[in-house]
Amino acid sequence: MSTAEEESASVVLPEGLRRGRPGYVTALVALVAAGLASFNTMYCTQALMPTLTDALGASAADASLTVSAATGVLALTILPASVLSERFGRGRVIVGSAAAAVAVGLLLPFAPSLSWLVVGRGVQGLMVAGVPATAMAWLSQEIDPHYLPQAMGLYVAGNTVGGLLGRLIPAGMLNFTGWRWALAVDMLFALACTVVTVFIMPKERRFVPKAIGLRTEMQAVLNHWYDSRKASLFLVAFLAMGTFVSLYDFLGYRLTTAPFHFSQSGVGGIFLLYLFGTVASARTGTVVTRWGRSRTILGGAVLGLVGLPMVISTRLSVILIGVAVFTYGFFIVHSVASGWVGALANKDRAEASGTYLACYYLGSSIVGYLSGLVFHHFGWRTLTLWMEGTFILSTILVVTVARRSATH
Questions:
Q1: Which GO terms describe its molecular function (predicted)?
Q2: What is the CA radius of gyration of the chain?
Q3: Model confidence pLDDT, tens digit, residues 40-85
Q4: What does DSSP assign to residue 143?
Q5: CB atoms < 10 A from the CB of 4, how many?
Q6: Are the C-beta atoms of 390 and 244 separated by less than 8 Å?
Q7: How many CA atoms lie within 13 A of 250 on its CB side?
Q8: N or C: which end of the chain has fewer CB within 10 A?
Q9: Cα distance between residue 335 and residue 100, in whole Å
Q10: Consecutive H or E run containing 326
């Protein structure tokens, strides 16, 4: 390290933020607000899918593209965004990304057709990528390691609330208006959250700019894949998230048919079960501290395996319990896996986090769309078996990671 770099490091690398110290709460509020805005925008059309099918004459699989387009483009751009944050600062990327995504979102209600809505959602996915790409790395960089599991859990919990409100707000608005106004009101909420982030986001204190190059960044990503534990966690993200988004994408279609006959706006109530994910995310950090990552993530996977088969039932109470149990288990798996990747990455942490999230959102896009085809051609029962299969594969990988970690 040069003398100039040493002097810079001595200035920008103070002690990490700790609970009870100045800046800790402000940092968490800013990151949670960014998560609320970004996850709201990511899934703002999911609860509208049955309505889009009726209003625009789209199949369930085509309507799901309004979700898959956003998450798919996000998945492709999340790694470049995380790399750029290593050079220009994660805080700048987070603020700029959240603001740009909301700006695009405010134009979506004017889309003249489903095709244009899908295109707009793809652009929105491009714009929003900077928040999930860098937020976890920002926390890992700025928060004292002792408080990182709790901070990460709160951030993920905020994401679940953002995702929940991104479904509930437009679904609730369907009681009073059409999908365009429902989407517009939801984007105004995302705008309010973004304003909070812009005004209170603290400056990075521990950031050191990194020289970036295409070859070195590609090598950094490959190095993470060479680590069998990190590679397994990347695949866990792909399969588990794909299963999760498939369940919530198409459950609404199931509940609007016999024997349930939910209204279009009534389907939005099912997303209240997201609160189980919020609780799971917030508590996971404490559980990990007590029981360790391996036992905690295995417990989450088992809960997912128990809950998912229950949604095949024709009894509403059984379906709701199954969705709640699966949601709780999934968010345990995601919270542990995302934090574990950061802990395993001794260097090039942004690339590790970006690769994990790229796999996470690729799973949402690819598996989610394939699930739509399964549902369209074979129905709910076959879709449930398909989802159980993808989550079983994810669980096998979880067991593999736990065993390999025990030998290190």
A1: transmembrane transporter activity
A2: 20
A3: 999 999 999 999 999 998 999 999 999 999 999 999 998 888 878 8
A4: B
A5: 8
A6: no
A7: 34
A8: C
A9: 27
A10: helix 316-344
**pLDDT tens track for 220-252:** 899 999 999 999 999 999 999 999 999 999 999
Looking at residue 384, what DSSP letter applies? Answer: H
Q: What are phi and psi of 17, to 5 degrees?
A: -65, 135
Mean pLDDT within 282-286: 84
334: nearest Cα among 376, 267, 274, 377: 274
Q: How far apart are CA 201 and CA 188, in angstroms?
A: 20
Tokens of residue 207, six digits: 């950031």
Burial of 41 (0-12, 13-18, 19+ CB in 10 A): buried
Q: What is the pLDDT of residues 130-159, one digit of tens each?
A: 998 888 778 888 888 888 877 877 887 788
How far is residue 207's CA from residue 219's CA, in Å, rounded to a whole number? Answer: 22
Give me the amino acid identity at 397: L
Query: Residue 17 pairs with which residues in a beta bridge?
Result: 143
CA 343 to chain centre: 19
Q: Which residues pair with 143 in a beta bridge?
A: 17
Alpha helices in 174-256 (DSSP H): 179-200, 214-226, 228-255
Give the pLDDT confidence score for residue 145 in this predicted structure: 81
Residue 48 to residue 19: CA distance in whole angstroms:
40
Q: Residue 129 above 60 pLDDT?
A: yes
With residue 273 as reference, give the H or E element that holds it. none
Q: What tokens does 172 get? A: 């609730």
Round to whole Å and give the CA distance between 85 and 88. 5
Nearest-angstrom CA–CA distance, 382 and 374: 7
Report how far residue 10's alpha carbon sits from residue 81's, in angstroms, rounded to the nearest whole number.
27
Q: What angle, rounded to 10 degrees, do the helices at 228-255 and 380-406 form?
A: 160
Residue 140: its pLDDT value, please?
A: 80
| Domains in the chain: boundaries | 16-204+214-406
Contact 64, 249 (CB under 8 A): yes
CA dihedral over 23, 24, 27, 29, signed as positive or negative: negative
